[in-house]
Design brief:
Elements: E1 2-6, E2 9-11, E3 33-35, H1 37-53, E4 56-63, H2 68-77, E5 81-86, H3 92-106, E6 110-114, H4 125-133, E7 137-147, E8 150-157, E9 160-167, E10 170-174, H5 189-195, E11 200-203, H6 234-243
Parallel strand pairs: 1-4, 1-6, 4-5, 5-11, 6-10, 7-10
Antiparallel strand pairs: 2-3, 7-8, 8-9
Helix pairs in contact: 2-5, 3-4
Length: 248
C-alpha cells in the first residue's frame, strides 16, 4: 500500500503573529515553523499503517525551499521519502491541484492529511483534492483502519460519530483523535540522522490557476485594560459606563 501524507508548514503556536507594513502579507521574520498539528496526526497514522501493513509513506508539501526543515522532520518521524512542489501556497485551489497531480502521478492508495491548517483554517484543500481525483472522501476522521482494498473510517458528526466504509483509493482528512496524542512521534537522534539521507524530491509546479487572493490582513485589536471600581464609588462607575463604555 502506498500512502501520501500532505503536510503544511505553519507558524508555531507560540509565535507572535505580525503582518507587513502594508498589511498585504504575513511577516515571516523570526517565525519558528512546524508541521501543521492536524497533519501530524495524519502522519502518525500513516506510520502506524507502515509498521502494521508494510505501507510506504511519502510526504508532500507545496512550498518554497524554506519548508524543507519541516519536511525533514516528517522524514525523521518515519516517512520513507518526500516531495516538495516548488511553489508558494497561494490559495486552496492551487495547492489542491498540485497535490492531486502528485497523487495521480504516484498512484497512491490512500491520501491522508489534516482537515485544515492552523494558520488560515480554510479546510478546503482535502475536499478539493478528492474532487480533482474523483476519489471517495472522509472528513473530520477520528479513527481509521485499512483492510485490503477497503478502509473503515470513523468521523465526528453533530452529537456523535459515524462509521464509513470506503473503497481505496481514497482521501481521508483527520483531526485530533485520529491517533492518541501520546502516540505522536518525537524524532529521536537515529530518526534525525536517517532523515538526512532519505530522498527529498523537488517537483516543478503545474502552474495551477490561483482563484483567490488575500487582499489585506488586520491584527486583532488588543483588549482594553480591566478597570476595578470600588463598590462604594458609584459615581466613578457611572462615569466610566457613560464616557468610556458608552453603554448609558
Amino acid at each position: 500500500m502506498k500512502i501520501l501524507v500532505c503536510i503544511s508548514s505553519v507558524p508555531d503556536t507560540t509565535s507572535k503573529i505580525n503582518f507587513t507594513a502594508d498589511k498585504s502579507a504575513f511577516d515571516k521574520t523570526g517565525i519558528q515553523w512546524v508541521i501543521n498539528p492536524l497533519d501530524e496526526f495524519a502522519l502518525t497514522k500513516a506510520i502506524k499503517l507502515q509498521e502494521s501493513q508494510g505501507a510506504t509513506v511519502t510526504v508532500v508539501n507545496v512550498g518554497d525551499a524554506g519548508t524543507e526543515a519541516v519536511i525533514r522532520k516528517a522524514l525523521a518521524i518515519g516517512a520513507n521519502d518526500a516531495i516538495r512542489v516548488n511553489a508558494e501556497a497561494k490559495d486552496s485551489f492551487s495547492v489542491a491541484k498540485e497535490i492531486a497531480k502528485v497523487a495521480q502521478d504516484g498512484g497512491y492508495d490512500l491520501i491522508l492529511m489534516g482537515k485544515e491548517s492552523i494558520d488560515y483554517n480554510g479546510g478546503a484543500v482535502p475536499g478539493m483534492v478528492a474532487q480533482l481525483l474523483n476519489f471517495p472522501f472522509v472528513n473530520a476522521c477520528v479513527g481509521l483502519e485499512v483492510s485490503g482494498s477497503e478502509a473503515t473510517a470513523v468521523r465526528e458528526i453533530e452529537g456523535g460519530k459515524e462509521t464509513i466504509s470506503v473503497k481505496l483509493p481514497a482521501v481521508v482528512a483527520g483531526q485530533k483523535g485520529l491517533v492518541d496524542e501520546k502516540d505522536l512521534i518525537i524524532p529521536n537522534m537515529r530518526g534525525i540522522m536517517s532523515a538526512r539521507t532519505k530522498p527529498l524530491h523537488v517537483a516543478e509546479p503545474s502552474n495551477a490557476e490561483v482563484k483567490v487572493e488575500a487582499v489585506s490582513f488586520d491584527s486583532v485589536a488588543p483588549r482594553a485594560a480591566v478597570k476595578l471600581v470600588s463598590p462604594d464609588n458609584l459615581d466613578e462607575l457611572v462615569r466610566l459606563l457613560h464616557e468610556e463604555a458608552k453603554v448609558i
